[in-house]
């Protein structure tokens, strides 16, 4: 299927690896001009080169901290008129809420809620003027099914989801959509890091613990960044203009619900 977005400009945040990279690769394969950012210059430059070589698309690398005003300025300046915005940021660390300070909460909310809102604020009017825009927020399956040790993420990402539920309905008439993708267990560095905490807490061997957890998923495995990217690309497509204010759970069936 031709997704109808060749020649559009995209900004994909936190895209040097994992789910962000998967999204950037899928968009680049569709002929989108992709700008990717992350904090480490060597990593983001290498990723841009690899995606460009694999897809033939123009991929611009920006080394910045997207959670800061200066980082957002730098990324947006490089991306130009943003038609597609994929908000993504590394999640806050797991832990016990009794140990978290107000500074921990402020950092989590800034990275996983306010940063995305600021990027939306700075790009949405241009999308409205051009009568095309696709905004995808990568949040977490914990928005629907909270995970106790990820309380910082639960709170911040749910806040972003609630905010976007309101403005998505205002933007839709202009062919600008705002949706979320809620990843469940995907084989990423973050999943492995969180699982290491759980394995250590249980006194279990990490490899055994990892394999057993993957086997408990109804799909019998963890997801891949590549299949996540394909789902993101479709939400960004011309054909997805009637999908408004939704939160697509990608978890291999882990969350058990009739609706």
| Sequence stretches where pLDDT stays below 50 over 5 or more residues | none
Structural class: alpha/beta
Give a quick account of the main beta sheet: strands, pairing sense, barrel closure. Answer: 7 strands, parallel
Give the integer mean of the pLDDT values: 96
Shape category: globular
**Cα-atom radius of gyration:** 18 Å
Helix content bin: 40-55%
What is the terminal separation in angstroms? 28 Å
Q: Please provide the ordered H/E string of secondary-structure elements.
A: EHEHEHEHEHEHHHE
What share of the residues does DSSP label as strand, in percent?
Answer: 5-15%
- The spatial strand order of the largest sheet comes to 3-2-1-4-5-6-7
How many helix segments? 8
Number of strands: 7
Structure overview:
- It is built from 8 helices and 7 strands, in the order βαβαβαβαβαβαααβ.
- The protein has 259 residues and is α/β, with parallel strands linked by helices.
- Helix content is 48%, strand content 14%.
- Strands 3-2-1-4-5-6-7 form a 7-stranded parallel β-sheet, with helices on both faces.
- The longest helix has 29 residues, at 102-130.
Gist?
With 259 residues, the protein is of the alpha/beta class.
Task: Jot down its keywords.
8 helices; 259 residues; 48% helix; alpha/beta; 7-stranded parallel sheet; 14% strand
List the helices and strands and how they pair.
Elements: E1 9-12, H1 18-29, E2 33-38, H2 41-55, E3 59-63, H3 69-79, E4 84-87, H4 102-130, E5 133-138, H5 151-171, E6 176-183, H6 189-202, H7 206-216, H8 225-235, E7 247-250
